[in-house]
Specification:
Length: 111
């Protein structure tokens, strides 16, 4: 398998980075988005949730990179999958899993 990259739906590109941005602004720049009731009651939770999501996205990006290597996808497409997975997260892993499944299913059928 050589070049194989599929750009995610633009809706995901709006929702997920947008949610990260809003949570980041609420936690670290509360004057930009005035949600003081969230900050006063849930600031610690929001900080933990934000950084847990970042760590999860890093892990998911590493998994996507490994899956691309197993599928023998070229380095440029692997980089694109990795970056897209880091930004969008688990949704992209599901796309790669379906490609992975089809790739190995076709290999079994053809051999």
């Amino acid at each position: 398998m050589s070049k194989r990259f599929q750009l995610a739906n633009p809706l995901w590109w709006a929702i997920i980075p947008g949610a990260f941005l809003v949570i980041f602004l609420v936690v670290y720049y509360p004057n930009v988005i005035p949600l003081s009731h969230l900050l006063s009651n849930y600031r610690t939770f929001l900080i933990i949730a934000l950084w847990a999501a970042v760590v999860a996205h890093v892990f998911e990006a590493l998994v996507a990179r490994r899956m691309c290597q197993k599928l023998k996808i070229d380095s440029q497409s692997t980089l694109l999958w990795t970056i897209q997975t880091f930004i969008l997260g688990l949704y992209i892993i599901y796309v790669l899993i379906s490609i992975h499944f089809l790739f190995f299913l076709l290999q079994d059928i053809l051999h």
